[in-house]
Amino acid sequence: FLVCDHDPHPQVPPGDYELFCTEATVYRDPGLKVWKCRCRFINPMLEGFPEICGFMNLGKDPPKPPGRRSRYRREWTIANAGPPAKRQRMSPRVFKNKMFIVAVDWVQPTQHDGKPHNEHTRYSLVKEIKELACGGVIKLPSTQVHKSLSKFGLS
Fold first, then answer.
1. For residue 140, what pLDDT band results from cuts at 50, 70 and 90?
2. SS3 22
């Protein structure tokens, strides 16, 4: 008998949100055969707000340094509060534990097989990191932040 072992994908209305990045990981997507950076975001100020991911394409094997016009470099520069120095390593750790203003939207209108998503299969993604929010620092009492982050095993 088949049993679903996944939580439903997050569904939040498209718009700009102030979200906290809990994780930034580089991995190779086996299906698309490209390297990606996945950032996980939560809203520690809203109880029940789902975790939403954002993905940045890093290219084919092996990943090359991000180009000047790449999304990764643009958003890394926002997270770093400045451009990288020559030969500086552009680690995804720069995103972790910071608050951002991000644009959230629905996933692409079609699935991998080319069929359109319906209201039950579409889900929300962070499409763009727009800016650091309040200097990237959370402005909440530490107990509230700890309580919010502990739900995700991050405290």
1. low
2. strand
